[in-house]
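Lay summary. Proteins are chains of building blocks that fold into shapes, and those shapes determine what they do. In this project we predict the shape from the chain. Here is one chain we studied, written as its sequence of building blocks.
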Amino acid sequence: MTTIIDKLRLDGKKIYITGGAQGLGKSMAQALAEAGADVAIVDIQLEKAQATAAEIAAATGQKVIAVKADVTNPEDVQKMITTVVDKLGGLDVAFNNAGMVINTPAEETTFDQWTKVINLNLNGVFLTSQAAGKYMIEHGGGAIINTASMSAHIVNRPQPQASYNASKAGVIQLSKSLAIEWAKKGVRVNTLSPGYMATDLTQNSEELKPLIDIWNDWAPLGRMGKPEELQGIAVYLASDTSSFATGADFAIDGAFTAW
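And here is the predicted shape, written in a compact code that computers can read:
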């Protein structure tokens, strides 16, 4: 008998995850490999990606490779897809996770700052989704997971981050649009919207330390999430168990957006 645990296995699946060298991307990449997938750690920081790939490969026994790519560059993105397919033997799941935030008051935000955030968070997700989707349409289908944020649903406080919020709202609407366009072409597209997460970066940032108490005070659970608390949803969305899930946003935020 095939159990639900069996169905959540990712044996034989080939997956890439952008921004996978550290933080949430690394944690989710670890889970995908633990579930049986071969994984490409895609990051603009190649040395970090190589270290992460080696660490996950040693821990899981799966094939884990590192690929350098600038996801805001169309040529780089296409080269990344080609490399992943060549080295892993295909592409079943695309996890577009790379992103950034710049906290500046809207009236003081420079056009360069605005463009950097929109270019990585939204344009980068479009380029990687487009390239992965085209491959999947031509090769029998697949699943795309795009990292959005609870900031697509709320206005964070006290930090000002209009560019980030707008970019992540765009990721959700883009993903819904792609889900509709590709529904009958075998490609599912969903978004994952984390809340405040206690990564090494957030925990060790002097700039963010004054904000963490404020965030925790507002959080219904009274704390930030742990990176490993996103691992289950990542595996679910990558697995065939989620075959009826497309065009959906999964907010894993400790009820922060339920206020």
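What the prediction tells us: The chain has a mean pLDDT of 96.
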